Write a sequence for this structure.
């Protein structure tokens, strides 16, 4: 009769032998089925490599604007959907952008929410985009955004 320690030892030995067979089998498979030229197969370029992609991670925002001088409560809402072009092959900058989504949203909410509906109309969309872009770039460390686009910009109220 085998003791518990001997059973454990045999079980571990069987697992070790199975892992060895898997490693040897995988190595043989890779050697046998490699490309005939002896070189690694060339990687195909990703579709549209080098082209920018739209960063839509900020999403659409509904921002209550500050009240007019005559009113005490917010008298309007602004719907903003800001996007910009980035290059997904720049992994470090892409990761920074993903980590900054909350900051981007706060920048838009705080900046746009600081105006009344009338002030926003006087300010103009281009001036708003320029200032928001400047604020976005001020928090980025690994790259910069070239242009900001409002996919949607609507002042309601």
């Amino acid at each position: 009769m085998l003791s518990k320690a001997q059973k454990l030892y045999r079980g571990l030995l069987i697992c070790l032998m199975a892992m060895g067979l898997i490693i040897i089998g995988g190595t043989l498979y890779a050697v046998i089925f490699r490309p005939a030229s002896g070189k690694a197969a060339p990687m195909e370029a990703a579709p549209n490599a080098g082209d920018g992609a739209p960063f839509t991670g900020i999403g659409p925002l509904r921002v209550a604007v500050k009240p007019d001088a005559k009113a005490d409560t917010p008298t309007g809402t602004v719907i903003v959907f800001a996007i910009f072009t980035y290059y997904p092959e720049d992994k470090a900058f892409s990761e920074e952008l993903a980590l900054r989504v909350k900051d981007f949203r706060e920048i838009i909410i705080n900046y746009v929410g600081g105006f009344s509906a009338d002030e926003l109309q006087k300010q103009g969309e281009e001036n708003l985009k320029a200032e928001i872009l400047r604020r976005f770039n001020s928090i980025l460390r690994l790259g910069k955004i070239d242009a900001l686009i409002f996919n949607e910009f609507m002042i309601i109220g």
Notes: The CA atoms of residues 53 and 85 lie 5 Å apart. Helices lie at 4-32, 91-99, 101-113, 117-123, 125-139. The longest helix spans residues 4-32.
